[in-house]
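Progress against Task 2.4 (sequence-to-structure conversion) is shown through the following example record, which the project officer requested during the mid-term review.
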Amino acid sequence: MTYVKDWKRAEEMSRMMNSEATDMFAVRPDHKGPKTVGILLIVFSIFLGLVAKADLDLANTDTVSDAYMEQILETPNQQGDNVSFEQYQSYHQEINNNNGYLIRGISLAIGSATGIIGGILLYRMKPIGGKLALSGALIAFVGGSIGNMVFYDAAKSHLNGTIRDNAEYFGYGCGICTFLIAALALLPLINARAKLAFEEANSVELVHDDSE
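Structure tokens generated for the chain above:
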């Protein structure tokens, strides 16, 4: 009789241990992750928006002011680039003639707007926000790359030294930023814990709506 009790007790303990082990490795919903991603999307998208605004402002100007060129060329010329105002003006006009400012500005503006809206939606646990930000980031990446090619071609024709290199590096920076936005937007869409959190958050809202 004692052996039977001990066997049952051992069986119960074994079941409890198996249950605890299963719970230990169970996938749990992650509510903080999507919200953190949403905040980062908003921050990166604001940067894109500032670049887009600068490009669109320059797209509407046939020539840039001497004060603007002096500010842009001061440091490179101190380092020995010796780029004249006329050279920079030709650089600006070639970009405008090939719609470089317009292409990059509109593309980055779309990426910025979708990134901010998508980030807000992700913070509110709406998975559509990730899809929206991802689509906008892809548009910004493709359009920004095309626009940056125009910038770099114009820089090779009219500029020299560090300021010409800066045009290339800035293009790389924009590409990296849009790639990061796309990667961030994709992350909660493929993460199992984030998916569970989305389902849990939205199912609670549906139950709440039905009760009303």
